[in-house]
Amino acid sequence: MPAIKLDGNLLAKTIRAEIAEQVKTFIASGGKPPGLATVLVGDDPASHVYVRNKRKACEQAGMVSIHHALSANVTQKELLDVVASLNADPAVNGILVQLPLPKGIDEEAVIRAILPGKDVDAFHPENVGLLAAGHPRFLPCTPYGVRLLLSRNGIATAGKHVVILGRSNIVGKPLAMILMQKPTAAFPDAGDATVTVVHRGTRDLPSITRQADILIAAIGVPRFVTPEMVKPGAAVIDVGINSVDGKLVGDVHESVIDTAGAVSPVPGGVGPMTITMLLQNTLAAAKIYA
Ligand code: GUN
Q1: Which residues of the chain have pLDDT under 50?
Q2: Cβ neighbours of residue 55 under 8 Å, at least 6 residues apart?
């Protein structure tokens, strides 16, 4: 039997409608419309598409989008000045500087310049630390989207073996933090799973991925995960977005659908969830600091 499709478009639509309702209630009770500032540097076409989609989703949820488009030649000082002005602006609840930044700009310095309370990406070391310590302020958007794609499709994580392919700061590492920790009042979305993170340096990787009840691929290598690497019936989450001959493909080979029990498609799986969780974080930022 082919795998169940974990439909991120459908779930994102449902959660965005819930967020739009919460925004209405927040404004009706005297709150200002939540504001998300996006900062886009240079002319990377993919980044332009991502930012446009983020801004559109923001407005559709009843929030305000504030946009700064800067030239690829912007200096580090000019970029830091823009971040400082957004930190000081009371109409801005969330700040998102789209990555990657052009060569010559110190990405780490820019991330550290964002006020942690407005860091809706949760990339600032203070927010990374709060997550690692078990009382997160915000959950990073893609890992948060993966978490909800599992839980809202009835895929429990407690006691399961989760194998994560990839150890990036944006996906692999924070996802491991979310899924391994104990759920508490401060961290209800924690997964209570047994988590293994595998990467380029892992020996005999398929023998580990085959143990996964839930396998999550976030390495950016097209169609890397093949059926031999998947335990029959496992849930497979594909975080990859790769362009191959003009077509979007994930990190999971299409044929995995005949081995897995559930698979998230690319496109239409994790992607729409990432933007949805950005909206959730922006609303949370507005509520915390209202
Ligand atoms: N580039 C790729 N993914 C992301 C993301 O989640 N946030 C930001 N700011 N840039 C990205």
Answers
A1: none
A2: 36, 38, 65, 67
